Amino acid sequence: xxxxxxxxxxxxxxxxxxLDELIRLGMRPxxxxxxxxxxxxxxTPVASLPGGGLCVGKLYDNHGREADLTSAFARQAEKxxxxxxxxxxxxxxxxxxxxxxDSSGAVSVLRDPSGAVGCAFQPRAPCCFLTSSVGxxxxxxxxxxxxxxxxxxxxxxxxxxKLERTGLAGLQELLPGSAVTLTxxxxxxxxAMWTPWQFLGGAQHRRDPATAxxxxxxxxxxxxxxxxxxDGSLLLELSGGLDSSIVGACLARTAxxxxxxxxxxxxxxxxxxxxxxLIAELLDVELRACTLDFDDARIDFxxxxxxxxPAVWALSRSVGRIMDEAAEHAKVSALFSGGGGDTVFxxxxxxxxxxxxxxxxxxxxxxxAVANLSRLHGCTVAxxxxxxxxxxxxxxxxxxxxxxxxxxxxxxxxSLTPHPWFSAPRSALVGDRExxxxxxxxxxxxxxxxxxxxxxxxxxxxxxxxxxxxxxVPSWMWIDGGRNRAIARDAFSEALPETILNRRSKxxxxxxxxxxxxxxxxxxxxxxLDGSLQAQGLLDRAALERYLAQPPVARDDTFMRLFxxxxxxxxxRHHR
Length: 576
What we know:
Layout: E1 6-9, H1 10-13, H2 16-24, E2 28-33, E3 36-40, E4 46-49, E5 53-60, H3 69-72, H4 79-89, E6 91-99, E7 107-111, E8 120-122, E9 129-131, H5 134-139, H6 149-157, E10 172-173, E11 178-182, E12 191-192, H7 209-231, E13 233-237, H8 242-251, E14 257-264, H9 273-282, E15 287-291, H10 314-330, E16 334-336, H11 341-344, H12 352-361, H13 363-377, H14 381-393, H15 430-442, E17 456-458, H16 464-471, H17 486-491, H18 498-501, H19 510-529, H20 532-535, H21 541-549, H22 559-573
Parallel strand pairs: 13-14, 13-16, 14-15, 16-17
Antiparallel strand pairs: 1-3, 1-9, 2-3, 4-5, 5-6, 6-7, 7-11, 8-9, 8-10, 11-12
């Protein structure tokens, strides 16, 4: 089950009506930090910390053993010091609450870098709370859902960026790896306590390929083994690609009961059964293959009232449905996937790895990287060198550019709300900048992966030890031998079937998605042109009508932008 909780300041925690509703929801007091009382069901692990703190969720040491927090922190330290010690010595899925360093009764909150445990908070009147799910606060009458249209305006231009601000008015989300201090009626600005930049460049780099591969193998194996041991039974969502296959190979070493499922479509291009079956065979289990029907990929579908922002679109909803059915059939307690593997394993599609090699590795390393880049992309060495030079001398653009397609020209584009990881060191390499932007994008994966049945959704490749181990490997080493994700392949060369290990491509759902678009054009037209975004003056009606009236063109993926807008429109409709 997910780790549910809500923290309330004294005046709200003592209200009889609130207490009655919390009891009805199966919650009880589990401890107090400052003036905040923490409520959680018995199934949610809550541990005490020295100095009056509480940890919601699970913490593990560097060997994957559950942390003994009492002996780990023998004496009380300042909250910033304790937060740093937690991040340096442990990992897991947790939210930690510590009393503020003064006597105000305020509480300081840290969310683990993986963001596996939710942490939304309302920092101002009429009630200050923090919770794993706003549905809990709404269920006890402490929050009423109201759309923040300023956020929605930002979202239509930057639909794949997770920020502290949410789509619900007055509600914020503590970003992974960040900390915030809350009082009864206000809050201090949040602070990034963990960022990817701590592990990139300079002395952090592991230049020896064998050492790098060993550290990644150790980290992934430890995380998968720890999480699988806790869950006991799980469904592995197999895509047929390298990342989920690596998770599967690690699961073969555990005692967990594993089931496997892969999604296929009625069209060519996404049938990965041949490759998924190899991992199922490795695990000695049957592979369940489920077909995505076109009718499943609806653009108008219910989303949880507790969702904080638009993140679920038609394809993720339909995949979620069949995975839920497979998990229910297998009677498992968790779902595992290789989500985030492309980003964590530095699957960069530009010339930036070679540019990084010249800047940080020198001439010989740079020339070798250019040759690897040529092999990776099947182009001439001259073209690879030219692309590398362009990367070397172009000014990097860290923040993502806004997507203004189909947006009204009369609407003023909002300025980009900064993410704490945008602040790159001046010496940052261009490939490392691209890697960090990719990691920012993975923070939405939990929101975008709808799964039901109260099961935990595990993405082991986004766990803190794995991310840190991979960040320490220079970007150019990931294209060694003209292979993408080369160090990950080396790390698991003895555990994976050669067919998967040597594979360079993977099936795509693009044909299926394009077919859904062709079948749904009229529905999409009415959904957007008669919807809330249009009523707010955000959309360019004429541009939408022109595009939707044209037959789809081969290799034109502009329709994916329409799915983004439908995702936002659908979220708004179900939160009005």
